[in-house]
Amino acid sequence: MKIAIIGGGLAGLTAAAYLSSHPEIEGTVFERSPQLGGRAFTYEKAGFTLNYGAHAVYGIDRHTLRHMEDELGITIPSKQVDKRKVMYAKNGRLTPAPLDFVNIMKTEVLTTMDKVRFVGEVAAIIGNLHQLKNYPTLGDYLDQSHAADDVKELWAHLVCSNFFITPEEARKVSGEVIADYYHNLFLSSRPVNYVLGSWAVITNQLKEKVENSGRWTISVKEPVETILQDGKQFLLNTKSRELLPFDAVIIALPVQQVVKLMESSPWEAAMIPYMDNTCTEVMVYDLGFSTIVARPFHYISDMDNKLFISDVSATDNTVAPENGQLLQGIAYLNDEFATEEERKQYLEKKSSQLEALFDQHYPNWRDHVAVKRVSKKAMVSSVKNIASNRLLPHQLPEVPFYFCGDGCEGKGELAERAFSSARIVAQQLLSQQNEKAKVSSI
């Protein structure tokens, strides 16, 4: 079997790594960019390792990455963020973030009675009893809940933090999605972790596994432009080659790019339900300091302005040179504006708010900046997982391709959905190939 994988991001590389282990499967990964990794791209500047977005992993002990380590024989080193140094800022005051039962008791974002109520809700989610799962959205649940306003605000803020969206959008997330996500996260003994060495540690190992098979090739700077079906085969046209034959095609692209690829094809109509999907975008403000400016905590979440700063190098010392410090500020963004000027002013305001947070907790930081990068609209996920959007299934009845990526159905959120959906698709194809082998041997 010869397989084409369109897209060399986390999902495409994961699918290729699984499939490359089968001796009767060969294939090609097509990537339009000069480098692999997609939005998990990592690069170095002045001794700092920068990611396009956070390389944090939530609940790593219950994560798809753990299956991948065992099944693919790769190693993913990680370190947990110190929960005692994760803070919330509210109304000008700092308080411990309620990451576990100890911090819930210490935090000042809830009153004593509200802490008891929230602990009860956490326990109900762990026991898979929480009624949230029966509501269409978080907003529907909160509107009918008798909980105090502080408990409701905390729920919205937690969803903001883990789904990288604004409170308004958090209210639109499915109750079932939230209940499933937090059932998994609250059971985790390692809720927030960094992959040591950034995403490149994972993408490099996946790439090496694919290339070492001897049956797969990876072609960068070669976007696929069209796909034709010829009987049971598929013919791919790329920017530099035409009519490349394959037995199966996996499309591991952001949903917006999938829709564009399917334009003027026999499968264009099948993409209509996914055309209006919105993506998750954030502002990312990276600062690399030549020295450690201050280290009051490892993470601070500004509940009032809906942004946070991570001292990435406090957990992952591989991302900064010796005695250096790498901070990453992220602001959750709205995406509905009447005019482009209104959007521009909004982004400038968010940038100012992040800088004010830097000013407050990292005095004189401007005097020590060695690296600065601001991405005003960085895509974190190609499909914002809210009720008005639809995740793309791994297969559509009327389309002869497989789909995987962070905009597809799968376990978890953000990067985990890319890993998990790719793993599912690869396992389906491996199962098919094994069944064919059994039939042919009879």
Can you put this structure into words, describing what you see?
- This protein has three domains: 2-38 and 199-277 and 386-441, FAD/NAD(P)-binding domain, CATH 3.50.50; 97-189, Guanine Nucleotide Dissociation Inhibitor, domain 1 (Orthogonal Bundle), CATH 1.10.405; 280-381.
- The two termini are 19 Å apart.
- The protein is globular and about 70 Å long.
- The strands form five sheets. Strands 8-7-16-17-18-15-19 form a seven-stranded mixed β-sheet.
- The protein contains 13 helices and 20 strands.
- The protein is an alpha/beta fold and 442 residues long.
List the helices and strands and how they pair.
Blueprint: E1 2-6, H1 10-19, E2 26-31, E3 42-45, E4 48-51, E5 56-58, H2 64-72, E6 78-80, E7 86-90, E8 93-96, H3 101-106, H4 112-126, H5 138-144, H6 149-163, H7 167-170, H8 175-186, E9 192-195, H9 200-212, E10 216-220, E11 224-230, E12 233-238, E13 244-246, E14 248-251, H10 255-261, E15 280-289, E16 299-302, E17 307-311, H11 312-315, E18 325-332, H12 340-361, E19 369-381, E20 402-403, H13 415-441
Parallel strand pairs: 1-2, 1-14, 2-10, 7-16, 14-20
Antiparallel strand pairs: 3-4, 5-9, 6-9, 7-8, 11-12, 12-13, 15-18, 15-19, 16-17, 17-18
